[in-house]
Amino acid sequence: MIRYLARRFVTMLVTLVIVSALVFWIINLPPGDYLSNQIAELRAQGEAASIEKAEFLRTQYSLDQPLWKQYLIWLGALPGPDGYNGLLQGDFGWSFEFDQPVSDVLGDALWLTCIVNFSALLFIYIVSLPLGAIAAVKAGSWLDYFIAIIGYIGLATPNFLLALILLYYGQLYLGLPVGGLMDPVYEGEPLSWAKVGSVLSHLLIPTIVIGTAGTAAMIRRLRANLLDELGKPYVVTAKAKGLSSTKRVVKYPLRAALNPFVADIGNLLPSLVSGSVLVSVVLSLPTLGPALLTALQTQDQYLAGFILLFVSALTLVGMLVSDILLAILDPRIRFGGRGR
Amino acid sequence: MTPKDHETLPGKAGRAPSAIDPAERYIDEAAYDPAAEADTGGARPDLDMPTGKLIRRRFLKHKLAVISAVFLAFLYLCVPFVEVIAPYGANTRDAQHLYAPPQPVHLWHEDEFIGPFVYPTTPQPDLEMFRWDYIEDRSNPQPLRFFCSGEEYEFWGLFPADFHLVCAPEGGTLFLLGADRLGRDVFSRLVYGARLSLTVGLIGIIISLTIGMTLGGMAGYFGGIVDSTVQRMIEVIRSLPELPIWLALSAAVPATWSPVAVFVMISVILGLLDWPGLARAVRSKLLSLREEDFVRAAELIGAKPSRVIRKHLLPNFMSHIVVSASLSIPAMILGETALSFLGLGLRPPATSWGVMLNEAQNLTVVEFYPWVASAMVPVMLVVLAFNFLGDGLRDAMDPYS
Fold first, then answer.
1. Is A316–B239 a contact, with Cβ atoms under 8 angstroms apart?
2. Min Cα separation A193/chain B (Å)
3. Residue A27: which pLDDT band, with cuts at 50, 70 and 90?
4. Closest residue of B to A16, CA-based?
C-alpha cells in the first residue's frame, strides 16, 4: 500500500512539473508581455519615471531573459536577479495589473475555489448515488426514464445559462441572494454562525449549477455498473435465500458498483474545475475564475500562470485522492500494487 | 426452436385433432416442410446477415437515436444555405425595432383565412421602465412573401444573389424570434450562427481524430518507449482542466486576425485537448488486435506498419471511433459556446450561438427580453441529439451482443 501510494505521489509530482512548463508556455504564447506593452504606452506619453519602474520590474522578473530561463526562474529552480525566489520558495510572482504580489491579489480566492469545487463534488455524490441506484433497481420504469431525462437535461444545458436562469428564479421566488460568496455585511468580519449561514446560502446555486453536468454522467455510470452487478448469480442466490430487497442491493452489489464510481473522480474533476471557472464568472463569485479571465485579457502573465497551475494542481490532487480511495475500497488494486 | 421440436410437432398434429388436445399445447396445423428445416439448420437466422445490415437494423430500433440523426442531418443540410433560409442578414440592423418582441405568424384575420401573415408593430417609449414597448397594429395584416427576392448577399462568397425562402412583408418587418439590442433579427442570427457553431465541432473532431488515432495507433502498435511516452502525454493532457486552458489558448489568438482565421484557430484549440480519450481507446484496442493471426500474416507478407494499421487494424475499431466522435462533438459545441460567451472565442461580427448568448449575459435580458437568449434552445437540442445519436450508435455497433 505504502509503495503504491509513494509511486502514485511521485507520478503526480512529475506530471505537475510538466503541466507547469506547459502552462508557462501557453501563457507566453501571445506576442509581447504586459510590461513591454506598458512601456510602449508610457513612452508614447513620455513619462520617464514610470518607464523606469516598468523597466526595473522587467529585469526584476527577468522578462528580458529567454523563455526557458524565465520558466526556471519562475519555478525557483534558477536564481532570479535577487537570488532564489520562485514557486518552489513560495513566491508566486507579481501581478502587474494590480501592482501587488499574486498571493495578495488572490488571497481568499484560493480557498473559496477549493470550497466551491468540494461542495460541488459532494453534491454530485449525494445526488447521483441514490438516483443512480434507484434508476438501476427500477430499470425500465417511469422513474428510471424520469431520472434519465433529468440527467440528459443537465448534460445538455450550458452551465453558464443554467447559472443565469437559476440566479434569476432563485432570487425571484426563493429570495436567494444574487452573486458574491457572502453578504457584503460579513465581508472582513470574524467567522460567526451568521457568516457561515450567509456563505452557505450563497453557495447553493453555484453548487447546483457546477454539479449538474457531472451528476448526469455519474448517474448513468452508476446505473450501468449496478445493472451489471444485479444480474450476477450471487444476487439471485441472495434473493432465493430470502434476503430483504434493500439488503440485497445495498450490501454487496452496490459496494461492487461503487469502485468505478469512485475512480471516475479522475474524469470528473477536470470538467468540474472548468465548469466552476465559467460559473464563477457569471455569478461573480470571488474565486479564481474571474481573476483568470481578467489576467488572460490583460496578459498579466504571472497571475494567469499561477491560477492555471493552481487549478491544474487541484485537479491532480483530486485524482490522487480518488486513487487512494479506490485503493482502500478495492483490495485488488492494493495487493496488485504490492505484488509488483 | 431447435430442429428436434420441429420434427415432433407435425407428427402430433397428425395423430390428434387440435381442438380437443388434452394437454392444451400449441400445435402447428401446417404441413411439415423439410426444405425449410434444412435451410436454417442450427444457425441464428436473425444474426445471419452482413454486419452492416445488422448494425442498421439495430440502430433503426433505437427511436430516439433515429430522430436525432434525422434532426442533425437536417441541420447540417441547412448549413450551406443559411443565406437563403434567413430572411435578414446576420448583421442587418433595424434601428426602429430595438429589442422588438417576437412577431407570431397568424393565418386568420378577423375569422378570414388569408394565409401566413404578421401584424406590424410600432415602438412606444416606456419612460417609467426605460424600455421600448411594441404596440401591435391588429387592423393591418401583412402577408409574408415566400420564394422572394429580399436583402442581397454574396452566395458562398462567389456571386451576388437576393433569393430568400421567406421575406418580410413589403414595408414591414418579420422578427420571428424578436430582435436584439441592435435591432438585428434573432431568427436570422440563429440560422447564421448555426453555420459556425455546428462546423466548429466538425473541424475540432477532425483534428482530435487525427492526433488521437496517430498517437494512439503508434502507442498500441509499437509499444515500448513510444507507448510509455504517449501514455504520459495522455495523462498530462487529461489532468488539465479544459476550459481554463482553452481560455488561455484562445487569449493568445491575436485580436487583429480575420473572423475566419479566428474561427479556424478556435476549432483547432477545441480539438487539441480532446484527443486523449480517443487515443486511449485506440491504443487498448490495438494492443489486443496486434496479437491476432491476420496481423501476423500481413506482417509476414511484408506490409509496412502504416499499411497494417490502416488496412487491417483501423477497420476493426472504426465503430469505436464513430461513437466517441459523436460523443465529443457536443462537448466542443458547448466549448465554443462557453468561450464565445466569455468573449474569448469567436468575436463579432462573426455570428455563432455563443456570440449571441454573450449578449444575453445580464439579468435585464433574462427578465425583459428573454427571446434574445433563444440561442440556448438550439444549443441544448443539438447537444442532446448528439448524445442520443452516440448512445444509439454505441448500442448498434455491437450487434452480436
1. yes
2. 31
3. confident
4. B236
Chain mean position to CA B280: 24
Residue A298 sits at the chain B interface (C-beta within 8 Å): no
Distance CA A147, CA B75 (A): 28
Among B144, B174, B204, identify where a domain stops.
B174
Name the residue range of residue B344's domain: 69-76+189-396
Nearest-CA distance from B123 to chain A in Å?
A: 27
One domain, residues B303 and B223: yes
Strands (E), B218-284: none
Q: Find the distance separating the first CA and the last CA of chain B, reported in whole Å.
A: 20
**DSSP states of A269-290 as a string?**
HHHHHHHHHHHHHHHT-SSHHH
Q: What is the pLDDT of residue A189?
A: 65
Inter-chain residue contact A15 with B344, CB threshold 8 Å: no
Number of other residues whose CB lies within 10 A of the CB of residue B75: 16
Nearest-Cα residue of chain A relative to residue B368: A168
Cell numbers that stand for A255 in this block = 459496494
Total structural domains within chain B: 2
pLDDT, chain B, mean: 79
Complex ipTM > 0.90: no
Model confidence at A180: pLDDT above 80: no
Q: How far is CA A333 from CA A5, A229, A267, B106, in A?
A: 11, 19, 18, 66
Q: Are residues B294 and B264 in the same domain?
A: yes
Nearest CA in chain A to B377: A157
Same domain, B167 and B215: no
Residue bearing the bigger pLDDT, A132 or B168? A132
